[in-house]
Amino acid sequence: MGVHRKTRNLELVLDAFRDTQEALSAHLLMDRLPAYVNRSTVYRLLDRLEDDGVLHSFLASENIKFYALCRGCSQSGHVHSHAHFQCTSCSQVVCIEQQVVVPTLNQGRVDEAQVLLKGQCATCMQ
Amino acid sequence: MGVHRKTRNLELVLDAFRDTQEALSAHLLMDRLPAYVNRSTVYRLLDRLEDDGVLHSFLASENIKFYALCRGCSQSGHVHSHAHFQCTSCSQVVCIEQQVVVPTLNQGRVDEAQVLLKGQCATCMQ
DNA sequence: TTCATTATTGCAACAGAGTCGCATTAGTTA
DNA sequence: TAACTAATGCGACTCTGTTGCAATAATGAA
Question: N or C: which end of chain B has fewer CB within 10 A?
Answer without folding.
Answer: C
